[in-house]
Specification:
The chain is an alpha/beta fold and about 180 residues long. It has 3 helices and 9 strands, in the order E-E-E-H-H-E-E-E-E-H-E-E. The protein has 2 domains: about 100 residues, Transcription elongation factor, GreA/GreB, N-terminal domain (Helix Hairpins); about 70 residues, Transcription elongation factor, GreA/GreB, C-terminal domain (Chitinase A, domain 3), CATH 3.10.50.30. The chain has a 5-stranded mixed sheet with strand order 7-6-5-9-8. It has a 4-stranded mixed sheet with strand order 2-1-4-3.
């Protein structure tokens, strides 16, 4: 069963996940419902369309004869390896997911919160605090494990927060929390 995190509390969601295999990724993967849906869509695309397409390419390349000097065969096998690795990664995310659900805003930054903040003299920035599997700073999503995410969690609007990265240190003022 998948689990859901509500502001740090854990609840079991009412649906069962399919039995998926992947031994190497046993830890929880925190992800928003939207992020999980994107992962499932990508997984379905790779399994139902890309995998059969690559299998057909490999079959066609085998029919060309000598595999030792067959570039098409080796390129298709290489592509198959990348696709299978990604499918395994997505399987692990689906299997080990813990949903980050946003609840009624308490005004305190937590996983799932959207935070508006400003650095001195700069424009306001907005980021949603998500799990590492769906973090994409250019798209406005930062991981709760990142320096920014760690620093913002637990603070509220009006507070100033020091952000410490391996190469710099700066201060931001939280303007709002959704």
């Amino acid at each position: 069963m998948g689990r859901t995190v509500y502001g740090g509390a854990l609840a079991v969601t009412p649906y069962a996940l399919p039995a998926l295999r992947l031994e190497f990724m046993a830890s929880d993967v925190h992800i928003t419902p939207e992020g999980l849906e994107k992962v499932r869509e990508e997984h379905d695309q790779l399994v139902s369309k890309q995998r059969p397409y690559i299998a057909a390419k490999i079959k066609a390349a085998r029919e060309l004869g000598d595999l030792s000097e067959n570039f098409e065969y080796h390129a298709a096998k290489n592509e198959q390896g990348f696709i299978e690795a990604r499918i395994n990664e997505l399987d692990a995310i689906i299997k080990n997911h813990v949903l980050i659900e946003t609840k009624q805003s308490t005004g305190v930054v937590d996983m799932g919160s959207t935070v508006h903040f400003q650095e001195d003299g700069e424009d306001e920035e907005t980021y949603r605090i998500v799990g590492p599997a769906e973090a994409d700073p250019k798209a406005g999503r930062v991981s709760y494990e990142s320096a920014l995410g760690k620093a913002l969690i637990g603070h509220k609007a009006g507070e100033e927060v020091d952000i410490v990265t391996p190469t710099s240190r700066y201060r931001v003022r939280i303007v709002g929390v959704d």
